[in-house]
User: Which sequence fits this backbone?
């Protein structure tokens, strides 16, 4: 007989059938009741052991964390808390788990502790729910693009270019670090390196996605990206996953429409398909919020927040309007901001973004038309000569979720911009070719996948929504 999943058994109407399950013991109580989980659902199934007819030695090995193989019959439950349970006819221990040393005890552990045990933390309800949601969101993303005529392309992980021009890259090299070859000037000679040039892990697949948009029309990439920025915050990872669609003949307004429609679609997917996990995480969040002062608690529950995004239009606000709002805001006037906004052109810090989305608008906000000099080189210059067709999408509780733009399609303007920023034309010869041969308006954006998972799960630290987080001073596992 094939093993059943717990999700399957719990969703069945018909009981009184023979079943076979393999899973891990969450708890074993009164020498009789096993709460068993196999990862297929947030719920455990109760397995009732006939202890009088079970070998004492076996009973002793039914411990939290042990892997077991249970055979029995699915019956209506006599007890409270579950509708069905398994009357065990035989149980086999597949893998023991020493209760003295198994780190995941049946009690509340801190997220810090669980991070140090990231290889075992998905044995907890919270992390299994988060990772199931992460998986579901990934699927919903591919589904959305597939149904909307986008091609999935794989952009390179190793590149020679700095797509964001921010210099926050991890070098890729197989030169001998202790004794690298030097050139005449005494500098490391990367001509002798594996690729014959300096290379790094990609910070974004955008530039290559642009190349494909300019032939396939609508493409997206969804892959790992790497940033060597030393920001030890709850929203930054050194390795994170980014979704980057790129579309030919689409302007900034179309880009905003796409981003909004896309996010609403993937969030409504999980509302429909991941109800139990969301409900579990919603209750977790409510418990966590009870420990906070009233003023800091959120007005909406997790599911309400997700629904709110699905059901309401994002607010579209120009950078210039945002600066006016911030200039006249209370925290600015009372000098409560760390960075006071006194003039047009200031870069927005997360305190300002938070004020806009959490205090002023109280909904997702699309900020657009930023000053050219605080944004990347590839963004389309507006007719005013000082702003670019950039957009950032800010979310309550998260801050920046999406960064995107209409791209500079005019060869001369792009060249001038690169010159001003000291970006080597020869390095990006192929990128310039796209403007030489059949150039056209095109746009795209990048969505930080982990930030989306944070929003959808209500988790407060980005390290808790990716299986094995990479952050400064930490690459365990
Ligand atoms: O705003 P960013 O830097 O934009 C780009 O990389 C563009 N090339 C995207 C494009 O237009 N195709 O990054 C995009 C998003 C951010 O809005 C944020 O959500 C996320 O990526 N992000 C990070 N997420 C986690 N850790 C980090 N260190 C991140 N840096 C950016
Ligand atoms: Mg950005």
Assistant:
């Amino acid at each position: 007989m094939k093993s059943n999943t717990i999700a399957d058994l719990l969703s069945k109407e018909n009981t009184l059938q023979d079943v076979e399950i393999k899973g891990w013991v969450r708890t074993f109580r009164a020498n009789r009741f096993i709460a068993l989980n196999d990862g297929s659902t947030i719920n455990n199934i109760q397995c009732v052991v006939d202890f009088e007819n079970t070998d004492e030695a076996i009973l002793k090995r039914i411990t939290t964390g042990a892997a077991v193989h249970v055979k029995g019959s699915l019956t209506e439950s006599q007890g409270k808390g579950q509708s069905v349970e398994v009357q065990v006819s035989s149980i086999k221990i597949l893998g023991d788990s020493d209760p003295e040393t198994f780190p995941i005890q049946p009690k509340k552990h801190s997220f810090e502790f669980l991070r140090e045990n990231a290889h075992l933390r998905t044995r907890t309800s919270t992390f299994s729910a988060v990772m199931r949601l992460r998986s579901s969101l990934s699927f919903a993303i591919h589904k959305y693009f597939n149904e909307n005529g986008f091609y999935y392309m794989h952009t390179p992980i190793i590149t020679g270019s700095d797509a964001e021009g921010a210099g926050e890259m991890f070098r890729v090299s197989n030169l001998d670090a202790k004794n690298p070859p030097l050139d005449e000037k005494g500098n490391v000679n990367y001509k002798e390196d594996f690729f014959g040039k300096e290379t790094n892990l990609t910070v974004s697949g955008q530039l290559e996605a642009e190349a494909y948009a300019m032939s396939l029309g609508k493409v997206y990439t969804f892959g790992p990206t790497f940033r060597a920025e030393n920001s030890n915050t709850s929203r930054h990872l050194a390795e994170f996953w980014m979704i980057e669609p790129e579309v030919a003949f689409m302007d900034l307004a179309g880009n905003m429409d796409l981003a909004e429609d896309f996010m609403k679609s993937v969030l409504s997917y999980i509302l429909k398909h991941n109800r139990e996990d969301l409900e579990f995480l919603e209750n977790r969040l409510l418990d966590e919020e009870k420990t906070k002062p009233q003023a800091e608690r959120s007005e909406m529950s997790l599911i309400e927040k997700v629904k709110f995004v699905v059901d309401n239009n994002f607010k579209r606000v120009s950078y210039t309007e945002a600066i006016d709002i911030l200039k006249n805001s209370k925290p600015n006037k009372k000098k409560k901001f760390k960075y006071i906004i006194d003039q047009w052109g200031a870069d927005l810090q997360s305190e300002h973004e938070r004020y806009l989305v959490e205090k002023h608008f109280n909904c997702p906000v699309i900020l657009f038309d930023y000053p050219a000099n605080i944004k990347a080189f590839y963004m389309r210059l507006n007719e005013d000569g000082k702003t670019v067709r950039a957009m950032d999408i800010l979310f309550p509780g998260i801050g920046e979720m999406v960064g995107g733009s209409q791209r500079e399609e005019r060869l001369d303007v792009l060249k001038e911009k690169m010159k001003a920023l000291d970006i080597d034309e020869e390095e990006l010869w192929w990128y310039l070719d796209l403007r030489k041969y059949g150039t056209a308006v095109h746009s795209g954006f990048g969505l930080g996948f982990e930030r989306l998972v944070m929003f959808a799960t209500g988790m407060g630290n980005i390290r808790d929504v990716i299986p094995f987080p990479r952050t400064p001073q930490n690459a365990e596992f």
User: Anything to note?
Assistant: The chain has a mean pLDDT of 95. The two ends are 36 Å apart (CA to CA). DSSP finds 14 helices and 16 strands in the chain.
